[in-house]
Amino acid sequence: MSSQRTDHHIDELVDSLTLEEQVALLAGTDFWHTVAIERAGIPAMRVSDGPAGARGTLFEGGPASVNVPCGTSLAATWDPPLVEEVGHLLGKESRAKGARVLLAPTVNLHRTPIGGRNFECMSEDPHLTARIAVAYVRGLQAEGVAACIKHFIGNDTEFERNTIDSHIDERTLRELYMVPFEAAVKQAGVMSVMTSYNRINGPWAADSVAMIDDVLRGEWGFDGLVMSDWFGLHSTAEGVIAGVDLEMPGPTLHRGPKLLEAVEQGKASAADVRRAARNVLSAMHRLGAFDDGEPGPELTRDVPEDRSLVRRAGAQGMVLLRNERAGDVPVLPLRLDGVNRVAIIGPNAARGQTEGGGSAHVHATHLSNPLEALSVALGKHGIEVTHAVGCPTHKRLPALQPALCTPFVVDFFRDVEGADASEAQPDLSTTPESSRIMWMSDPIDPDVGSAIPGFSARFRTTFTPDVTGAWEFGVSSVADAKLYLDDGLVVDNSTQPTGGSFFGLGKTEKVEASYLQANRAYQLEVRLRRPTTDNAFSGVQIGAYPPTLADPVDEATELAAAADLTIVVVGTNDDWESEGYDRDDMALPGRQDELIARVAAACAHTVVIVNAGSPVSMPWLDDVGAVLYTWFPGQEMGDAVVDVLLGDVEPQGRLPVSFPARLEDTPAFEHHPGRNGVANYLEGRLIGYRWYDTVGRQPLFPFGFGLGYATVVIAAARQLDDAVEVDLVNESDRDGVQVVQVYAARTGAAEHRGDDEPAQQLVGFVKARVPARATTTVTMQLDPRAMHTWSIADHDWVPVEGPFELRVGTSSRDIAVRIGTTAGQVTKSSAAPNHS
After folding, report:
1. In which band, very low, low, confident or very high, does the pLDDT at 191 lie, cut at 50, 70 and 90?
2. What is d(CA 537, CA 443) in angstroms, rounded to the nearest whole number?
3. Which residues are registered as beta bridge partners of 207?
4. CB contact at 8 A, 805 and 818
5. Per-residue confidence at 549, pLDDT binned at 50, 70, 90?
6. Phi-psi sector, 339: left (phi>0), alpha (psi -120 to 50), beta
7. For residue range 582-619, what is the model confidence (pLDDT) as tens digits?
């Protein structure tokens, strides 16, 4: 952290600036940098997307970054010290990219299991989310990088996120959705907060005086930097008055001359501008940006210790959901005696999905996939490994395979229509690494002002198919685009609706088929025209898929029938779980449910690995021997899976979300998505396990659930004022891990409770390691607000009437000990949540 300037010096600096210069500081200069003012010695400061890694300034390509486990995977560890280690790693990664702010963590709650960005968030429970978030922020900021916690507030699904009005009552906001943000401010000293896209009870989140000025800055005492989400500011005066310091990205759309005019007209004051400019400069001072000077080069760190940490964190977040006995022993860990052939089947086997889509995406330094890692591990035992994909799962066609193409070239034209660009000389040519391309600024003149002039682009390559038949080609883009083969029009997406790609800003994919001959070269071109716009963001994705010559499920079933053991790796990918849209349902994409059922019928010994960031339905659950849920576990996925399957690592992940049996059983089912521009949170405080436990609905797997190879049981529990002490016994011959959870349940008269008061709520947990055949005693501090509620009348936290019961168990449904208590016995103060 910088020590060269004091608060007094920051005041002097901001007061030395003209009003125009102060206003200039209140918006980015481009997608990732603040404005530099050379005259005053103010450098630019770089920010970078997270939370699965520090990507740097390029969405595709560029310096590689360590890809850490996604938010649900980190929360599934129930291990704040481990998450703090990951935070340190992300801080180092951010510094390597020249960034002083990482746009992470994401702490919105899992309101529905089909939220498109759930994988990036952590849990349905505010207490667990807060504990994990505080650890993440502490680790990151210890490396001199500000965490920018997001999205404040009510951006819990992606449906119409840019316009929806989230209607959330005050008590629900305070007791659920605000809790992680408050903990990050009060317990971790988070240095930056990002506002959400949506409206919140009327005003845009970035215009909400009630949320930003009154609560965040006033009640909680936040003194850091507030920035808008990218293109999430909708006003000029209102956002500055509410307390949004920095509009992102730049060039500005709502500030600059518009804000100067608003000050002249008295719609905003010079004091509002000064306050925001000071907050920007103060953040730069605290982070050492003045000492750094201009942001340095973006570098790749590839350190063995980092890979080891990601592998360890990924493995510890994996949740063993099912482990039946095969004869006298459980299916897992794998016993390889007598196993000669293993079939590894499934669409996620050879690639592994390490991360979700959208702004969380990073270009990983290393990728370990399950097929390769298992093949190496099993090969050491002389076991033959066979493989079949089983079925495709893409939502959009996969990007063009570079192996079938000559190097890609994109030509840019300033004044030529896309359809006529084939004969013109380009103003600029580039060589992208992928056929998925995004531009954050005008590609011809990156320094152009706020009105981005139109341009045409021509993507070209020579495509040589390796299979004869009807190939499918698809185009999605933030513009009208057409795909040609040998100058013949194949795909025209100009009539496609907007909203299906590129964070909801692009057109849905248009797919058409063309019969091609194998080994013949075809000239492939995509021509697009981007009109003049205020939004610099644009992009195109070009996909292709070969003809299907045989039923892939039949092929997989035949391999399974010939194997002694089948491992099926299924799941979602960044087509299905991504920023910009929600999933339609909980089903595994494509024919994966059929694939598992048929494989399980063909091979008596079948293990299923589910590689997804959110819950999926499991109609085949009772037909398979074991199920391991990996989430999106980061770049070392394959090796981490091997560690757990072979028993080198004890399964110790626990569910941070409830797994419903059906989507219809979920609390927000009747209210999601929103209607008529409004998302009504009518389920109130009953989300996740609070709903299931209160209404008596049986989940497929309860919140907090997870199996281990060792059997660690709760033998006894005692209350010690504001803590609970628990005796754990390991009944196994191997070391084990248990996550002990404490839930508070109000057992008094029902007439004193609100309609949406949960039957119980998580108020404490601890992860304990217990040696084989040993007993261990652990102590858990309880959340001081365990027996409190938000009083709308008092506008404060108040104790609620007892009696209470502390329920000590290993999930929300597996309770071992019940302890009668009252609010007074648990906590004497509710001044601040204790998430340390």
Report:
1. very high
2. 10
3. none
4. yes
5. confident
6. beta
7. 999 999 999 999 999 999 999 999 999 999 999 999 99
- Other CB atoms within a 10 A radius of the CB of residue 447 amount to 9
* DSSP state for residue 368 in the 8-state scheme: -
Instruction: State the pairing for strand pair 538-545/469-477.
Output: antiparallel
Token digits of residue 193: 């907060």
d(CA 360, CA 98): 18
pTM for this predicted structure? 0.94
Q: How far is CA 654 from CA 76, 130, 152, 658, 741, in A?
A: 5, 16, 27, 10, 11
> Token digits for 95?
């510094």
* 8 Å CB contact between 514 and 470: yes
The encoded tokens of residue 256 equal 């600059």
Is 400 in contact with 432 (CB distance < 8 Å)? no
Determine the average pLDDT of the residues in 630-653. 98
Residue 751 has pLDDT above 80, yes or no: no
List the strands of the sheet with 678-680, edge to edge.
Answer: 199-200, 165-167, 678-680
Backbone angles phi, psi at 2, to 5 degrees: -75, 140
CA pair distance 317, 655, nearest whole angstrom: 9
CA gyration radius, the chain: 27
How many beta carbons lie within 10 A of that of residue 824, not counting itself?
10
Cis, peptide link before residue 81, omega less than 30° from 0: no
Mean pLDDT of the chain: 93
**Cβ(643)–Cβ(649) under 8 Å?**
yes
Q: How many CB atoms lie within 10 A of CB 492?
A: 16
Confidence check: pLDDT of 742 > 70: yes
| Interatomic CA distance for residues 566 and 598, integer angstroms | 12
Q: What span, in angstroms and rounded, lies between the C-alpha atoms of 372 and 385? A: 10
Q: What are phi and psi for residue 797, nearest 5 degrees? A: -80, 130
Q: For residue 599, how far is the Cα from the chain centroid?
A: 31
DSSP assignment letter at 216: I
pLDDT per position as a tens digit, 663-720: 999 999 999 999 999 999 999 999 999 999 999 999 999 999 999 999 999 999 999 9
What's the whole-number mean pLDDT along residues 327-351? 95
Say if residues 297 and 41 touch (Cβ distance below 8 Å): no
| C-alpha dist (Å) from residue 610 to 325, 352, 626 | 20, 10, 11
% of the chain surpassing 90 pLDDT: 85
Catalytic residues, which ones? Answer: 229
Q: Are 484 and 522 in contact (CB under 8 A)?
A: no
Identify the three-state secondary structure at position 82: helix
Q: For the residues 377-390, what does the mean pLDDT come to?
A: 97
Q: By three-state DSSP, how is residue 377 classified?
A: helix
DSSP 8-state symbol, 777? E
397, two tokens: 């066609």
pLDDT of residue 3: 43
Q: What is the mean pLDDT of residues 523-551?
A: 90
The DSSP secondary structure of 246-281, one letter per residue, reads BB-SSS-SSSTHHHHHHHHTTSS-HHHHHHHHHHHH
Please check whether residue 116 is in contact with residue 581, taking contact to mean a CB–CB distance below 8 angstroms: yes
DSSP string across 23-74: HHTTBBSSSSBBPPBGGGTB---BEEE-SSS---S-SSSSS-B--PPPHHHH
- 20 DSSP 8-state letter: H
pLDDT of residue 801: 79
Residue 393 has pLDDT above 60, yes or no: yes
Is omega for the bond preceding 673 within 30 degrees of 0, making it cis? Answer: yes
Q: Are 262 and 245 in contact (CB under 8 A)?
A: no
Residue 748 has pLDDT above 80, yes or no: no
